[in-house]
Amino acid sequence: MTNRSACAYWRTRANPLRGMSKVNRLTAREKEVLLLLGTGLGNRQLARELHIAERTVKAHIARIVEKLGQETRLQAAVLSVLVHNTLCDDVRCSCRYAATAEELPPAFAV
Question: Where does the HTH luxR-type domain lie (predicted)?
Fold first, then answer.
């Protein structure tokens, strides 16, 4: 058996939180795009949801990836999920709560 770490992040030197402190550098529209990106929608669906052209979505995503210091759209989407509480201001959103049972409101506790 090899002596390699079981942690994929450590092995690949990836840091899913890289860029977290840079989220506030995004414009309001870029934050909106990033929040939707975290839902897993494709460019066409994002364009429909935002009422913009697909090429505009691609431009927004490219700027977001660059501003956040990410390498890929997927990394930006993962970061979006991790910082959902920062991006989302909808008080009805059940995703705004941390994923620990003790921090969930009673209606969402598992």
Answer: 19-84
Judge whether 51 lies within some domain. yes
Return the higher-pLDDT residue of 20 and 103. 20
105: which residues sit within 8 A by CB, 6+ positions away?
Answer: 97
How many Cβ atoms are within 10 Å of 27's Cβ, its own excluded?
12
Given this model, what pLDDT does residue 15 score?
76
Please give the residue range of the domain that contains residue 40: 16-85
Banded model confidence at residue 87, pLDDT cuts 50, 70, 90: confident
